[in-house]
Design brief:
heterodimer; A: alpha+beta; B: mainly alpha; 78% helix; 0% strand; flat
Chain lengths: 462, 273
Amino acid sequence: MEKNNKRISGVWELLTSMKFGMMLLFIIAVLSVLGTVIPQEYQLQYYEASYSKFSFELIKAFSLHKVFTSWWFITLIVILCINLLLCSIRRIGSIFDKIFKKPDLYKEFSKIKSWEEVNVENSDITIVFKTLNFKNVIETDISIDAETSLDISEEANSQADLVRDEISDSKSIVGRLYFSDKGKIGHIGSWLTHLGILIIAIFFTFGKIKGFDEYVFGVPGDTLDVDNTDLSIYIEDFEVKFREDFSVEQYISDVVVLKNGEIEDAGKISVNHPMRTNNVNIYQNSTGWALDAILYKNEEEYAKQLVYEGDLFVEDNQKIAIQFTRFYPDFDHDSEGMTSKTPLPNHPVMIYALFYDGYRVDMNLAHMGTPIEYEEYKFVFEEPQRYTMFQVAHDPGKTGAFIGGSILTLGIFLAMFVNPKKLFIFIDNEDKIKIYGKSHKSNVVYQEEILAALEKAGREEE
Amino acid sequence: MDLIQIESTLFYIALVLYLISTVLYFVFFVNKNENSGYYGNKVLKVAFVLHTLALISRSIGANRLPLSNQYEFATSFAWAIALFYVISERKLKFRALGTFVVPIIFLIIGYAAMQNKDVRPLMPALQSYWLLIHVIIAIFSYGAFAISAGISIMYLSKDKFANDEFVKKHIPSSDKLDVLSYRFVAIGFLLLTLVIITGAIWAEFAWGRYWNWDPKETWALITWIIYAIYLHLRVSRGWRGKRTAIFSIIGFACVLFTYVGVNTWLPGFHSYK
């Protein structure tokens, strides 16, 4: 039983420790490298063909082809989230105390071990605090229990048992303490940073689980139903704007969004300018070419279809099929091979592969309108037109993730650039002035600042 | 002569001057020759001014800020390091830093010189204010990390120098170097966080996903984690000195890989291919 308790408490300690969180982050960073050097999200056959047998087995066994959605990666993220949550809960009390609780000056005074005696006048004390940008200086007598007979001026570094009573016998007063602190809000920086990471991780995961990504494509005049929604997109127009050098300036789709047949929204969608409507975002994703294909059988029109680049046009109980493999809008053939001189359909040529009874029987180029014949069949392709593809995305975690990102940034700013500092100046009964400064981050720099402030005070005195 | 040709001329003059400055700083440090340090600093400042003019010429000539391809990012990155260095030397007044930082500037601008300098119009995905914000913050973030790495190299090699007057005059105490390195990491880290966030916002607009585990994104995250661990160990665990200096150099190696390595070897949205 005791052994079990110890084990549970050990696990608890581990899960709530920042050290463990750091270890997890490090492991996540190292394992993420795998996801950048091994191509992700391909079919397993690709890895089988590209890697040695042993590597392929490793990839398959540990899902290294989808590192970021693998069970072990998600498990690590979940453990990290638990760690961040528990760590944040554990630390919040002490952080709030540091920020909002009135400092226990007697306790803090008793802990100071390295007073620095300085050669300044009593009147310089205010200047020192002011120079170091401290406001609200607390001034108080420090007294000790007379029975302890402790001489603070001589043994300031001892752990004095101080009486926490300002109204004390004048004999027990050992000196006067001036104290101020600043930048206490900086204490919450690392906590906010952890909270920000936690929020991002939670909302990112939530978005992945509850959200969706759909891709639809078509040519002007088409109405495209979007899966997972009751929306459809009517494409009014699609334009690719070219510059003089034929580089693409923008892809612009003019669309109407319909919900159950009723118009919900309308407008232009282009790259970097998605349409945000009905809890979905519609993005201009890509484009390609489509051709009107007509199949003749025994010289009679048998079937007609719009065929997209890469698609197969299969007919007559799969007896005949043609694949529209590639399209050259402005075909040219030079020493470097087949190319397109411009992206405009000035001299359109397609590459096709023809199948008959399941076997490839021909592969060639074809100009628009030129018949491609085999046995009793004849294909004619014409009217090249660009199609437009949309990504329709719904991510309910996005806003939360950006709030997390903002909290993270604020946390880092506070943690890095708001440095909690304390300054104690003590005048003992022999009028010796001692100083002690404590910075949450760099005492080296703070000591220099204190020295500079003391020098300034000395100069002003002169 | 058009503005892009002027930019090219200014760029190469700046490149040569950075090289001369590197040599002068080296002579200054190795031979303890004050004059070399003085002239190294002057040459660096001239190089920086010409470099700035080169970037302005390109911006006007290309009608956009030079932040959109490998060459433009590299030259802007080198410029940001030079800017941080000029400010640091003026403020901190320790010239020996140049011996460790100016070679980094030269290496980065040398890398830029090897890239294609053609001014190409922007593809649609790159036509975004978020891209500008994202990349501008990135050059300053990387610049701060470069200075931190330079200081850390100086920290690690400080023990090897005789503790003579020259060293006392030109190299701060180890504690101060340690703090300075930390401060630049802190600046770089905050900016890197903003780089990742603005990149995510841009990605959401352009590609419909704010995080896609693209190699560039993932390596930026890895770099962020490395520096986060550095800062955590420093602030919470009290790590100081040699260990944090090594961490800072490892962090900068990650920065360089995120920039050069990912774009060169790992395919993704940022490969510009």
